[in-house]
Write a structure and sequence with these properties.
By secondary structure, the chain is of the alpha+beta class. It is 25% helix and 39% strand. The strands form 2 sheets. Strands 1-2-3-4-5-6-8-7 form an 8-stranded mixed beta sheet, sandwiched between helices. It has a 3-stranded antiparallel beta sheet with strand order 9-11-10. A hairpin with a 3-residue loop joins strand 7 and strand 8. The longest helix is centred in the middle third of the chain and has 13 residues.
C-alpha cells in the first residue's frame, strides 16, 4: 500500500499518557512533512534532545532540519490535532548520503545508492505506541523506490533504539567513533534481493561492552543481527557470518 504516493495521510489511533497519570486513545494523523513543518519539527526535536548526552543523541542544527524537510531529505510525522508528536527523517540526496558515508568510513559499490537515517523523535506522552516501528516501515516504502539501502547509526548506550532497529532487520556492519568522537554502531538494511544471507546457526555471542571482539568479528565478515540479555552478564549482540554459503 503506497500511502504517500500523492502526499496522502493516514489516520491512526494511539495512546496518549496524560500528566495526571491517565492514558487514553487519541486519533492522530500519520503524514509526510514538508517545508511548512520546519518550525514544529525543530521544536519537537529540541524538546526531546534537551538534556540528553551526546553519547546517546547528537542533535541536528536548525539548518540540517531545513534540509530534511526540503528537497534533499524525507520526513514523516505524526500529528495530534495541530501538534506534531513524532518525526522521522532521512538524508535522500546523493551528495548528502555521500557525506555521511565518508564520515562513517563506508565503501559503497558503484551500483549502490544508499539513503541515510537522520533522527527519530517522539513526544514523551506518545511513547510506548511502537511509533519507531511504524514510521520506520513507512519510510522504507518511500526510500526503497529509488535507493538500494538505508544506513543508520545507534549509540551502544541506547539499548531501546538499538533493539528497535535490529528488530527492523538492520545489520551491524561497523562500530566506530563518529559525530566528533561519539561511539556508534553503523547499521545497514539492503533492499536488493541479491544481498548475501547471514548464517545464524553459527553465530557468535559478544558482550555489548566488548568493543574489540565486535570489531574483530565485523572484520572477519560477521554482521550483528540481534540483541539478547543475559541475567548474569547483561546485553550481548549476536553476530552471524555473511556469505553466499555456510
Amino acid at each position: 500500500m503506497n500511502l504517500f504516493k500523492e502526499n496522502n495521510s493516514l489516520k491512526i489511533f494511539i495512546r496518549r499518557h496524560r500528566a495526571d497519570g491517565a492514558a487514553q486513545i487519541e486519533k492522530c494523523e500519520l503524514c509526510r512533512l514538508g517545508p511548512k513543518d520546519i518550525e514544529d519539527t525543530a521544536t519537537l526535536h529540541n524538546k526531546v534532545a534537551n538534556g540528553l548526552s551526546h553519547e546517546i543523541f547528537v542533535p541536528s542544527p536548525y539548518e540540517e532540519i531545513e534540509r530534511f524537510l526540503g528537497g534533499e531529505g524525507l520526513a514523516v510525522g505524526i500529528r495530534s490535532g495541530d501538534k506534531l508528536v513524532a518525526a522521522r527523517t532521512v538524508k535522500m540526496s546523493c551528495a548528502w548520503a555521500n557525506e555521511a558515508a565518508e564520515e562513517y568510513e563506508m565503501d559503497f559499490g558503484a551500483d549502490e545508492f544508499p539513503a541515510v537515517t537522520g533522527f527519530c523523535v517522539v513526544d514523551w506522552a506518545y511513547r510506548g505506541n511502537n511509533v519507531q516501528y511504524l514510521t520506520q516501515y513507512l519510510v522504507e516504502d518511500i526510500v526503497s523506490r529509488e535507493h538500494t539501502s538505508l544506513v543508520t547509526t545507534v549509540s551502544p548506550k541506547n539499548i531501546f533504539s538499538l533493539n528497535n532497529i535490529l528488530v527492523c532487520n538492520f545489520r551491524i556492519i561497523g562500530l566506530k567513533a563518529v559525530y566528533g568522537g561519539y561511539l556508534r554502531y553503523i547499521l545497514k538494511k539492503d533492499f536488493r534481493p541479491s544481498l548475501l544471507p547471514i548464517w545464524t546457526h553459527g553465530h557468535r555471542q559478544i558482550n555489548i561492552r566488548d568493543k574489540a571482539a565486535q570489531i574483530e568479528a565485523i572484520a572477519e565478515g560477521y554482521a550483528g543481527y540481534k540483541l539478547v540479555r543475559k541475567h548474569t552478564s547483561g546485553f550481548h549482540i549476536l553476530y552471524a557470518k555473511v556469505a553466499a554459503e555456510a
